[in-house]
Amino acid sequence: xxxxxxxxxxxxxxxxxxxxxxxxxxxxxxxxxxxxxxxxxxxxxxxxxxxxxxxxxxxxxxxxxxxxxxxxxxxxxxxxxxxxxxxxxxxxxxxxxxxxxxxxxxxxxxxxxxxxxxxxxxxxxxxxxxxxxxxxxxxxxxxxxxxxxxxxxxxxxxxxxxxxxxxxxxxxxxxxxxxxxxxxxxxxxxxxxxxxxxxxxxxxxxxxxxxxxxxxxxxxxxxxxxxxxxxxxxxxxxxxxxxxxxxxxxxxxxxxxxxxxxxxxxxxxxxxxxxxxxxxxxxxxxxxxxxxxxxxxxxxxxxxxxxxxxxxxxxxxxxxxxxxxxxxxxxxxxxxxxxxxxxxxxxxxxxxxxxxxxxxxxxxxxxxxxxxxxxxxxxxxxxxxxxxxxxxxxxxxxxxxxxxxxxxxxxxxxxxxxxxxxxxxxxxxxxxxxxxxxxxxxxxxxxxxxxxxxxxxxxxxxxxxxxxxxxxxxxxxxxxxxxxxxxxxxxxxxxxxxxxxxxxxxxxxxxxxxxxxxxxx
Length: 521
What we know:
Elements: E1 3-8, H1 12-28, E2 31-33, E3 41-46, H2 51-67, E4 72-77, H3 78-85, E5 95-96, H4 105-112, H5 114-122, E6 141-148, H6 159-162, E7 167-168, H7 171-183, E8 188-193, H8 235-242, E9 250-253, H9 263-271, E10 278-280, H10 288-293, H11 300-313, E11 318-325, H12 332-345, E12 349-354, H13 372-395, E13 401-411, H14 418-430, E14 438-444, E15 449-452, E16 462-471, E17 474-478, H15 498-505
Parallel strand pairs: 1-2, 1-3, 3-4, 4-5, 6-8, 8-9, 10-11, 11-12, 15-17
Antiparallel strand pairs: 6-7, 13-14, 13-16, 14-15, 16-17
């Protein structure tokens, strides 16, 4: 049986697409193996969003060719598109699949290497079904791609060149896929796409926006119950339709442009409790002149107004963001404007990245490029501000109980948290095996990472967890005594509740710990 290996660089859209391609290969008869092992076919879904992403894509392509010089190396994704735009060759690639034909990768292989495909097909035992349930994720949440393509043409971005076709899937097709995900045990689906807010609007063209259609959200009943013709599908309607799927308990939106945070979308979040109160709204810059240079279709005031409006309407809402530092022409005053927006909105989490010139973009031709040293220095300063507002956001939920989708065990999240680190060391020395320091972990609906002690039987379930104290980029919590025996943790639990740990510390001889430094309450 021929072996196929897969790897993905870049965004959630790429991850979703790789899984779809992998499912096709597995159903056809290929044996799926790890990417670092010898295989007959290597499928590499590449990225070109930054220079670093392109460099990594090239390195992985070369690594695959070295693993097996006789293998067919299939390259798809945005770096493949960008290499074609720049007239760069990829000599190691035996097959290049365009982005808009990515989900037909198996068909391209069959056409170009029919003997290899026939060998895989022949390996299926007579009478056996070649269909397998989709494994759209190995986690408790699955990704659902609803659209492709972007035509916003930000001056720094090459994605409209590599994903130029605006295509939305039908609501019926997406509901069917979500139903399959629920049948496979997934509790949460993450809605993703290249320009998610443009779902259903394939003729959408970005225009500068100063005001959006308004709905009186204070007296809202249901703006989606409309007499007359069926409205054209949009993202809000899609989310409400997906919420009807039995077994799906959470629906999370991966990203939404500021100009697409409409009152209609906010109304959907107010009406449907399955929609996670979490909006990832890219800021990029908090300076209006820099935003203009970026060709972003909004200014600073519009962004702040949309965030404040959403925060006022959606209970427990977390807003996360992307921020770029060092765009051409960004001076210290412009950077401080970005810092000011961060402090005003108080983002629950932020992804900070430095500007990287992309080929064939307007920004690459601009003057006043910022030095790498200044970019690095600003990224460090901004990261500290973002960490502080993130801590403030988490602190507002300490002492409260929130639903957490338990994903499994992770190492204790002790960054910046001396007390948890000390507890980890003592508990690690008192437990068996090599899994010390492993707590159950998951995310609240508003995207706070919570770690807590409990049995592995809780994985894949949604539990009410009380947040006890901040820890790293999230919180330490407790599910309560109901998940433990009277005097001991369950056999598969590495950690015990901090309250129990506090009582036991006094029984440990000669630890040398200063117990009054541990905030155990």
